[in-house]
Design goal:
Structural class: alpha/beta
Helix content: 25-40%
Shape: globular
Order of helices and strands: EEHHEHEHEEHEH
Length: 217
Amino acid sequence: MAASSASSSEQTEPFLLVTEDLVPSLPPNLPTTTTIDFSGLLTPPLILQTDLKEGCGGQLWPAGRVLAKYLLQLKMDELRGKTIVELGAGSGLVGLALGLHSPNLTAVHITDLAPMLPLLTKNISLNPLLSSVIPSVLSWGSHIPPSIPPHPDILLAADCVYFEPAFPLLLATMEELIGEETVCYFCFKKRRRADLGFVKMAKKVFAIKLVEDDPDK
């Protein structure tokens, strides 16, 4: 809308006033709760709260679903009595699924940065866990705190490859945790060509085998 005054020497610029009545502000990302049974593999299903307040780690990542279902389908017998550590657990999807499924797991240590700890703790409380699931703070590249077992039998990582500057830090943490007998299940969704750079880095340090027995592959 344009407006002009009676005086030829004064003119107002065209303007349009937009208020929240016309364009309401976007609602904040509120926590949501969902249930996941992995095609009937979990009874009762896993109850999981997702919350983006502290960053993208609080959402459900696709590789987490893939890794959890693969382990539930094929690897639970192998995990009995093992020490298990999960890196970058986020909402806790993978570790909590294992803990809910089996009473025969010694303990599952789910780790992430300090801002994610309340969400991990919340999701532990939402589920009738059969095994002990323990949340811990672990920052990649830092020394492993005493609450996390050194050289666990099983190391889990799902969708931890998403931020290229963190690749060396993640690799350093894996080197510190992985012992001669440790088996690491590492699952990620390739989003960029740079993601494969981490795989190249890891191949220089670890013996890597592609999973060939995933029935959903």
